[in-house]
TrEMBL record:
Signal peptide: none annotated. The keyword Metal-binding applies. This is PDEase domain-containing protein. It comes from Mucor flavus. InterPro entries: HD/PDEase_dom (IPR003607), PDEase (IPR023088), PDEase_catalytic_dom (IPR002073), PDEase_catalytic_dom_sf (IPR036971), PDEase_CS (IPR023174). Residues 1-328 form the PDEase domain. The keyword Nuclease does not apply. Gene3D superfamilies: 3'5'-cyclic nucleotide phosphodiesterase, catalytic domain. Keywords: Hydrolase, Metal-binding. It comes from the Eukaryota.
Amino acid sequence: MLHLKFNKDKSKQELNAIEKKFKQYSKEKITPEFNVLSLNRTDIYAHVLRIFVQANVHSTLKVSVSQLLDFLIDVAEKYTEAPYHTFYHAADIVTMLYYLCHDLNANKYLTHLDITFLMVAALCHDMGHPGYNNAFQKSNKTDLAVRYGDESILESYSVDLTVELIKKHKLDKKHKEMNDILTDLILSTDMAYHPKLQQESHQLFNTWSQLTATTHTFPSEDRLSLSRILLHTADISNTARPWSISKQWSDLIVKEIYNQGDEEKKLKLTLSAGMDRDVCSQKSITLKFAEMIKPFFESLVSLLPKSHVLVDSLASNRIQWECLELTKKRKMRRASSDIIIQPITFKRIRLGFRSQSYPTVLYHHQSTSKKMLPASFPVQKSHHLLPLEFKSSFIYGTSANSSLESIVLYHPYDQ
């Protein structure tokens, strides 16, 4: 039975639901296919709680499962309702971090304490993120920029919120170094450190490749370096996830990016690169980011050979974006050609490459009459025909005397 000290507003029914889901999720395997965006609030608490328990976070910190849940709920409350940087993002990073450690074998290099600090850092790393990045904070001279200076503004804010909750829940009572390690890990999630982390990955490989096969312990600084690399990997992994999940995260990221661009225009600030919805498409934003992080993922394969699946997903998702773009272009080119049905001439909207053997046909919504159409034209709907709805006024003009009904324009799919 779960009992909370701080979040007493959670009803017995809610806690029972979390506990039930916790037991259910504990039987399921954690993979990159797990989609946290499909979960409700109760489910997300249960999912994160089961990962923390399976990673022995509660045992390492000497707290109960109830105390751990109390902490998770407090963390969730510190996240904002930004499109992307929400508690769901944090839960997704925790999920991928567990996968990296337990399925891709990163845990063989780390201690239980290392993994515990990693999980807590992943959960807390974007607390308080308002949906506008460090550059926006700096250029707009926000309160956060005034408070934290020019570097890692949002990450520094997340660190302060993390330390505050760690002290509130007394999670550091057995590990006095906890706050220092969490500070290091959370600050490393600033994308400004991306090149440095890629370099650290190469350095670790060069160091560890010289170790003997019997080496089972690694220096603390090397383990901390690997922890930074793993946290960063999980944090930018949405582009390397299965397509259906990757696309959902891309939708949210781009929404947040466009929101910032809109706000910068409104405030007459210098527009940040890649944030103008009138210039930058979702595809271009996503693929540019994927291209930037690709070398980082490739370097990770040297440390964790099984992580090649992430590189494969990057390549696969690029193909999916290209196919999506091609599909959009084809749809645009499937508009009608010039059609003449006596006594009315219909304007060509856009030329498409369609089979000449299938002329475009106009059907009236309210009539099945063939009087206006040549006898050779089919009038029944077919799964080979693509409907495009138009109001008659759009084609015939806006004359109030027109007696024509709304129509549907059909043409066959491209073969």
